[in-house]
Amino acid sequence: MAADKNNNKQPTAAQLDEVKEAVRKLLHQPDYDDGSAGPVLVRLAWHSAGTYCAKTNTGGSNGAGMRYEKEGGDPANAGLQHARAFLEPLKAKFPWITYADLWTLAAVVAIKEMGGPEISWKGGRTDFTDDSKVPPRGRLPDGAQGAEHLRFIFYRMGFNDQEIVALSGAHNLGRCHADRSGFQGKWVNNPTRFSNQYYKLLLANDWKKTTLPNGVTQFVYVEEEDDGAAAAEEEGGEKPESLMMLPTDIALLSDPAFRPWVERYAADKDLFFEHFAAVFAKLLELGIKRDASGKVINDENAEDGYRSAPKKSDTATAPGDQGPGQIGHEARALKEENDKARRRKEGAKL
């Protein structure tokens, strides 16, 4: 497919407003997770930008490298094919926008719509034409690790301890899936509402270490049942879902430099929102070079301008279903889940 004829022209404010409105309309996804595409869209932007290395000035959100196996195949990105598929109808409707801009813009819109802060966003990112500038795998956080690992990952990007704790607040949203990250469950009771509840729960609950059937270790908290809850279960009601935390979450409590920021954000939602908005905007700009007017002047942008890659499949495709070089990035363990999602979309009974 040829590149869109409007390529090399950065979108206008009016065009971007149309995209924002379309993102708002697609967030409601009753058949996906907790009924919203918002959390996984935030994760998509986070992971697309979180590959940055300040020392080598490689990685970051420019290029939308996750379209290629080299980056998308990183196990840390398992499950993000769902986020990319949610945005494909928008790519069809607005073929002039780059994937790199669409993924990052969708996240800031989603955060605001889920009750979070307004986050500064600048466009102009281009899409790579091949995978030669895609960063190596292994640059994203591993939730099974501790404070030392967090600093290794985030210091590489240029963040400090306060910013690490603020960015961890993204765990107010979404949930983990055993067949993706290996972990299972949600951090907070309402995972589609942005708040500071994550920090409050970290401090308030007695988190118990547990090992899942797949051998992965995480921390869980289950509220003690009262008479009403027990009666509801006897009458066929569902048992309340336990909450969970990752080892990296618990590390924020045990580390003497991280914990004070957990306490401050738990006590002051406005402060957390202010700091999160600043650090998330910083995350999305990692590796982006701009001139005085705000135009992106990275080498690939200077060479090809605002280049929007051809649209991909509308479904969360499994390995081998798309063109050479563009696919294979869905982890093999997700194939069965993808097939089920596709059949559900077609109205089949599972």
TrEMBL record:
<feature type="compositionally biased region" description="Basic residues">
    <location>
        <begin position="341"/>
        <end position="350"/>
    </location>
</feature>
<dbReference type="GO" id="GO:0042744">
    <property type="term" value="P:hydrogen peroxide catabolic process"/>
</dbReference>
<dbReference type="Pfam" id="PF00141">
    <property type="entry name" value="peroxidase"/>
</dbReference>
<keyword id="KW-0560">Oxidoreductase</keyword>
<feature type="compositionally biased region" description="Basic and acidic residues">
    <location>
        <begin position="124"/>
        <end position="134"/>
    </location>
</feature>
<dbReference type="InterPro" id="IPR010255">
    <property type="entry name" value="Haem_peroxidase_sf"/>
</dbReference>
<dbReference type="GO" id="GO:0020037">
    <property type="term" value="F:heme binding"/>
</dbReference>
<feature type="region of interest" description="Disordered">
    <location>
        <begin position="300"/>
        <end position="350"/>
    </location>
</feature>
<keyword id="KW-0479">Metal-binding</keyword>
<dbReference type="InterPro" id="IPR002016">
    <property type="entry name" value="Haem_peroxidase"/>
</dbReference>
<dbReference type="GO" id="GO:0000302">
    <property type="term" value="P:response to reactive oxygen species"/>
</dbReference>
<feature type="domain" description="Plant heme peroxidase family profile">
    <location>
        <begin position="80"/>
        <end position="335"/>
    </location>
</feature>
<protein>
    <recommendedName>
        <fullName>Peroxidase</fullName>
        <ecNumber>1.11.1.-</ecNumber>
    </recommendedName>
</protein>
<feature type="compositionally biased region" description="Basic and acidic residues">
    <location>
        <begin position="329"/>
        <end position="340"/>
    </location>
</feature>
<keyword id="KW-0408">Iron</keyword>
<comment type="function">
    <text>Destroys radicals which are normally produced within the cells and which are toxic to biological systems.</text>
</comment>
<dbReference type="InterPro" id="IPR019794">
    <property type="entry name" value="Peroxidases_AS"/>
</dbReference>
<comment type="similarity">
    <text>Belongs to the peroxidase family. Cytochrome c peroxidase subfamily.</text>
</comment>
<dbReference type="InterPro" id="IPR002207">
    <property type="entry name" value="Peroxidase_I"/>
</dbReference>
<dbReference type="GO" id="GO:0046872">
    <property type="term" value="F:metal ion binding"/>
</dbReference>
<keyword id="KW-0575">Peroxidase</keyword>
<dbReference type="InterPro" id="IPR044831">
    <property type="entry name" value="Ccp1-like"/>
</dbReference>
<dbReference type="GO" id="GO:0004601">
    <property type="term" value="F:peroxidase activity"/>
</dbReference>
<feature type="region of interest" description="Disordered">
    <location>
        <begin position="122"/>
        <end position="141"/>
    </location>
</feature>
<dbReference type="GO" id="GO:0034599">
    <property type="term" value="P:cellular response to oxidative stress"/>
</dbReference>
<keyword id="KW-0349">Heme</keyword>
